[in-house]
């Protein structure tokens, strides 16, 4: 048999007689070159897209309606290049990371660069909270307006300190903040491999998980917000808990005494059965990691009210399965209780009845966030189904991948626990229907790991070409759904410079105590002097009240503002408010156009400020002397 094998090998061509390692090396070199070529092609196509895309024509399908066709060639190039980068010998390099960075630029960088202004009204509100801290030098947890931000002010206090250091004003901060989605996603991409490497030694599965995460992260919580930053801290904390802080049988020296024994039992600082030099190094590493973990817990607690709940569930789950010391769960619980009792006590007292009343009301929580496709525009129906399809595809792939891992003999206890940990939020919070999106966000890193396992359930096979190209195609195809899901509401959530100018003028010049009637709470709002005004969105009124306004806008709105002191009442109507109303069916289509026309034609109101996309009105006996200007 050996002679026959030798003779057969001698009969082969010289190229095929290369040793296996040499053949693998040559194949890896070719794959690396092909991946790099795809990367360069995708980047070049992306630059062209940025240059020729005109966001002015965005319709109710969102950004996808104005993107040139070559963007899909860029997605295809990234998917193909990623498949090549997962080749054995290439996936150990940084090429997969570079392909994923390119994907982040395509998915999140495009909108940040194409649109001239900060997306999403809530992001402007967050800029306003920073402005408040800059002007007052502190934040008041007893303030009635935007109370949640005042009671979890971590992001805003730090941002204000940085803004003061560089003399950054609100409009300048908004210009910087519009790059938060690509920046935060790049940071997520750097942290996730540190988690996945604790679940598997297969680099294909590690990078595949990151790839799926980037595509699946469509819900838009990565804007300039406390939740986006707190999520980053959460991932960093989990990386420590499943990494250097993970318990092994040798940890927790039962023979120690005093503080050593206490630390060993509750924080696993020390171990036994190791050489003295190794023991010292490991102990120092664990102490440093433990201090970092506790610092992250404090930062999360001070930044966002919801994330600490997930932290407690995650740490508790890891402790229950014997992966983490009890001390971290106890510490997180004490920090959370202390924060709620001593800093956010007033706020918690005001919302506690609602928390108790809504505990466990999961059906309403979910139904509140499902779009009623019978009233929204045609484009928004497609956007809604695209988001559902993307979520379902990731979840289904995760289930199938988890089953493949199970059949292959893997027991992914920590990953399963961390996937299920956020589910408790559905019954324990009163965040409204938005909570289902938050559950998905916190579960997504681990759903993505299992989804990638559908393609790479084990690490033993060398014949993985089909799996590599399948996951690349999976990502490229879902990129279409991502653009619809993440950017499908851009006609509402993006703002023009003309809208920003009108809002800035109003917030800068309206006297403190003014009443600001808005068509809808969807425009660049509350980013300056936000505590000085009372906001009255027409779209948030009762059906009877809205019907009365639509029947006679000038008369009804005049009655609303009759008791307001002269010079302290304004009505602002913008393009983005109209898009919000028309696309989502909040009011009859064209309602704000009709109201705006009625106010322009009425003798009871005067136009005190107008730009291409915004109109500001005041009662005819008000607004005098404010330096009105019409463009």
UniProtKB/TrEMBL annotation:
Membrane spanning residue stretches: 30-52, 64-84, 96-115, 149-167, 205-224, 231-252, 284-302, 309-342, 385-403, 415-433, 439-458, 465-485
Native organism: Aminobacter anthyllidis
Keywords: Membrane, Transmembrane, Transmembrane helix
Protein name: Uncharacterized protein
Domain of life, source organism: Bacteria
